[in-house]
Amino acid sequence: MAKTRIVTGDRPTGKLHIGHYFGSLKNRVKLQDDYEEYILVADVQALTDNFNNPEKVAKNVREIVMDNLSVGLDPEKATIYLQSMIPETAELTVFYSNLVTIARLERNPTVKTEIAQKRDIFGESVTYGFLGYPVSQAADITVLGGEIVPTGEDQKPLIEQTREIVRKFNSIYGEVLKEPQVLLSENKRIKGLDGNEKMGKSLGNAIYLSDSEEEIRKKVMTAITDPARIKKDDLGNPDVCMVAYYHNLFNKEDYEQACKECRAGQRGCVECKKKLIENINKELAPIREKRKYYEEHPEIVDKILKDGTEKARKLAKETMKEVKKAMKIDYFE
Ligand code: TRP
């Protein structure tokens, strides 16, 4: 029986960090065995809010591919591909743009939040491209016939928008498209080293999968701990401590132990941080090693991306044939 098809992806605007690792990458690795998985490097979408900084997007394309490969995505199982090399997506986006209103896009909660955060780029009036990126994301998913989209909570409104476009298309032109479903990742947002609700590149509070041992050590040493705890024998509160929070992600047993000793005033923060550094490095060591291999063999990374794109494009072409037929613009077929 054919496997269910998954489409998911990231904007190449920076290297991936442990928030991505626990939030989506680990899940992707797990899913690759049972699903037909397509992982998109969304460079066109990244340009919607980085149109004036193309170097940033270009530079991060290979970084994202390497991040995905180094955590264990196997190109024999999962297909990693590049958005800009699937021109059918752009074509489908144009057709979809008739099926969605400006008001509906402006109401999309994800877009709304992002526009508010990006006033420095857009000022008072957002670009047509950015406002419309959910339409292009709908095309990303449906042009490959994606049935399941594993993402975080923040992407849910985008998939809802995709589903609406699909229903509208099918009701006008006939049942051609599949309506995808969200698969919410169990891990929510991962907090930053500074205690911020979100780990993010622009916030400067992230631990990257590509960080060296030394970088990890330095970063963990700066992590926020219980501010009320000054001496080791003060009774600590691990619930407000980022070191405890990360212990919980990397090693549950050490987390329990750390909490117990912290509350009893038996373990100092430095000791606790050292243990965390050890645990993070243990988890990241094999990832780092794989990454190093790919960094030394850029031609292999390029080949994986090119082959993946070629495979994805075949699906896209098939979909477009059906779409054009349904829309009666297949004049010479
Ligand atoms: N919007 C996603 C993000 O910001 C990236 C993305 C683009 C995507 N196209 C997609 C995700 C299709 C899932 C499916 O991370």
Describe this protein's structure:
The chain is mainly alpha-helical. Helix 1 (18-31) links the parallel strand 1 (5-10) and strand 2. It has 15 helices and 5 strands. It folds into 2 domains: 5-191 and 298-326, Rossmann fold (3-Layer(aba) Sandwich), CATH 3.40.50.620; 213-291, Tyrosyl-Transfer RNA Synthetase. The model has no long low-confidence stretch (mean pLDDT 95). The protein has helices at residues 18-31, 43-48, 54-70, 87-96, 102-107, 109-117, 119-122, 128-131, 133-143, 156-173, 213-221, 242-250, 252-263, 269-296, 298-326, and strands at 5-10, 36-41, 78-82, 148-151, 181-184. Helix 9 (133-143) crosses helix 10 (156-173). The strands form 2 sheets. A 3-stranded parallel beta sheet has the order 1-2-3. The protein has a two-stranded parallel sheet with strand order 4-5. It is 56% helix and 8% strand. Bound molecules: tryptophan. Tryptophan (TRP) binds next to strand 1, helix 9 and strand 4.
The major β-sheet equals: 3 strands, parallel
Large-scale geometry:
elongated
- Helical percent range? 55-70%
**Number of DSSP strand runs:** 5
Give the CA-CA distance, first to last residue: 31 Å
What is the name of the CATH superfamily of the largest domain?
HUPs
Which radius of gyration do the C-alpha atoms yield? 22 Å
CATH class of the largest domain: Alpha Beta
Show unreliable segments: none
Structural class: mainly alpha
Please work out how many helical segments DSSP would assign.
Answer: 15
| Neighbour order of strands in the largest sheet | 1-2-3
Helices and strands, in order, run as EHEHHEHHHHHHEHEHHHHH
